[in-house]
Please model this.
Amino acid sequence: MTTARMDPARRDLSIMGEAGHTDTEVRVEPSSVSRAARATYASDRSSGLLPDPTPRERTFTIISVDDHLVEPPDVFEGRIPASRADSAPRLVTDSDGREFWEFDGNRYGQIGLNAVVGRPKDQWSMEPARFDEMRPGCWDPVERIKDMDIDGVYASVCYPSLIAGFAGTVFARCRDQALGLDCIRAWNEWHLEEWVGDRSNRLIPLQLPWLNDPELAAAEVRRNAERGFKAVSFLEQPVDLGYPSLHTGHWDPFLAACEETGTVVCLHCASSGWSASRSPGAPLELLTSLFPVNALVTCADWLWSGVPVRFPALKILLAESGIDWVPMLIHRTDYVLDHSASGFDAWPDREHSPTDVLRRNFWFSVIDITSVIALRQEIGVDHIVLESDYPHADSTWPDTQEMAQRGLRDLPPEEVRRITWANAAELFGHPVPDELQVP
Model:
C-alpha cells in the first residue's frame, strides 16, 4: 500500500509491492521457467504449504467479483512482436533466490501478502515470494478451478498482479510506448486464451486498458468485447496518476465504448496508488483499515463528475469496497443537494437525483458482511455482490461459503439469491445453469 502522494515513477504500488530494486541478480530466461516448470511448481509442497483443506459444503451458489491472479513466467512468450521481444517483462532471480519481474529498468516482486492462501499465518509476510512458495492456484488456472471448488465459488473475476498494475499502469508508463501497448495486448491475449481458455463458465474475462489514448482504448474495448471480455480494470481516480480528471471529457471515448458494449468498468481499491493515510511511517494496518475510504472517495468523485449522467447505461463496480460507507454517502449527498448545493448547477440531471444515479450505475463488492447489511434496501439490494479476494491475506478462502451463510442468515431467500450470485450474473452477463442456482 502507498502513502498519499508519491514520486510519479513509483505510484502504482498499492498493496502489490515496490518497483525499482537494485539487488544483484542472476537472470533467468522466461523459456527456462515456463510451461515445463509449471508442472514442477504445481507438484511442489516442500515450501511449507498446508495440505489441501476439505471441500466446503455448498449452501449457496457464489460468484466472486474480486479475486486475483499471479502471472506465470510465460505470460509474454510468443505474444510480443519479435522486434521488441527481448524487452518484454521477464522473470529474474536474485542472489538470495527471490523471484522478481524485470521490465523497463524496474523490478517487481511477488509480495507475500498477495499470495498467502494455504500458508500458516505465522509465515505470512511482505517478503517477495517465489512461485514454489504459493499455492499453484495463484498462477495456474487449472489449479485455480480446484481451489474454487474447495471454496464453493462457482465463478470468479481475476485482477492482475504487480507486473501489470490494476489498470495496466506499469505498461502505460513504459518509456517505449509501442512496447507498453504490446504488453497490454499480450496480457489480454494471455488472460483470454490461457487463464480463461475453455473455463469461460468459471472465469470471467477481464481486460487491461491502454491509458495513454482514450480513442485507442475505446477501440480495444470494442475489439475485446467481440472476443468475449466482460470487464475492464480501470483507475479509481486517474488524476492521482497524472492523467486528466474525470471532470473533463477526456475519458468519454473510452467510457462510451464501455457503455456501448456492456463492459463493466471495475475500480479496484488502491488502483490509483492513493490512500487516505497522511502519516509518514504509518503501519500497514492503518492503510488497510482505510480501504473503505478509497471506495467512498472514488464513488463520490465518479458520481459528481457526471460520468454516469453522460453514460446512463454504464456499469461501474467498486471492487474490495464494502458497503458500510454507502448509506453515509447517500445521506450526505441528499443533504448537500437540499442545502449547500441548492440553487447551483453542479448536478446536471434534472430527472434523476444523485442517489438515483448511485443506485443505478454503481455496484458494491463485499468481502466481510457486517451489520450494515440491515440497510441493504437503502443501498440497493440488487447492487450488492460478493468477493473472496483469493489469494490475498484478506481472503475468505476456503470459507467463503461460511462467510456468506453467517452474514446472510437473516435475509429472505430471494435477497440471498441476488447477493450471492444473481446480481453478479446479471452485471457481467454470466448466466448460471439452472441446476446450480442455489437459492
